[in-house]
Amino acid sequence: MKSEDTPFEGGPMDGRVLPVLLGITGHPPKTYRIPVPAPDGGPSTVLVYRRVPRGSGRLTGLTARWKYLYDPTGRAGSERRWPWSKPAPRPDATPEGKPDDADG
Fold first, then answer.
1. Which of 2, 12, 53, 96 stands 20 to 30 A from 25 (CA)?
2. Please, are residues 17 and 6 in contact by the beta-carbon 8 Å criterion?
């Protein structure tokens, strides 16, 4: 298997560079999850990092390398999105076709 040294930015892993296995396309995974055990023996915490382009290559539009950015919400890439799926409702959005509570 091929691996690439990939930098991590933000969160507890800030400034570290880890070898990350590449997939069959030659890219690292879109999300990188790091389980961290609790010191008191409780449930472990999972750190989530998202893959973002590190910089552009010599050719326009081609990404030469990747880096991982810390995602404090921990929900990046947690659910699969299909092209025919409805967009996720925003918490402050009023459902379609129903009046707002303020309208009476």
1. 12
2. yes
Burial class of residue 69 in the structure, from the number of CB atoms within 10 Å of its CB (0-12 exposed, 13-18 middle, 19+ buried): middle
- The C-alpha atoms of residue 4 and residue 19 are separated, in whole angstroms, by 5
Task: Tell me the residue type at 98.
Answer: K
- Chain segment 56-88, per-residue pLDDT in tens: 656 655 556 899 999 988 765 546 677 787 776
Q: What is the pLDDT of residues 9-52, one digit of tens each?
A: 999 999 999 999 999 988 899 999 988 888 888 888 899 999 99
Query: What does the chain look like in DSSP terms, one character per residue?
Result: --EEEEEEESGGGTT-EEEEE--TTS---SEEEEEE--TTSSPPEEEEEEEEEEEE-SSTT-EEEEEEEE-TT--TT-S---TTSPPPPPTTPPPTTS--GGG-
Strands 63-70 and 3-9: parallel
The CA distance from 72 to 103, in Å, is 37
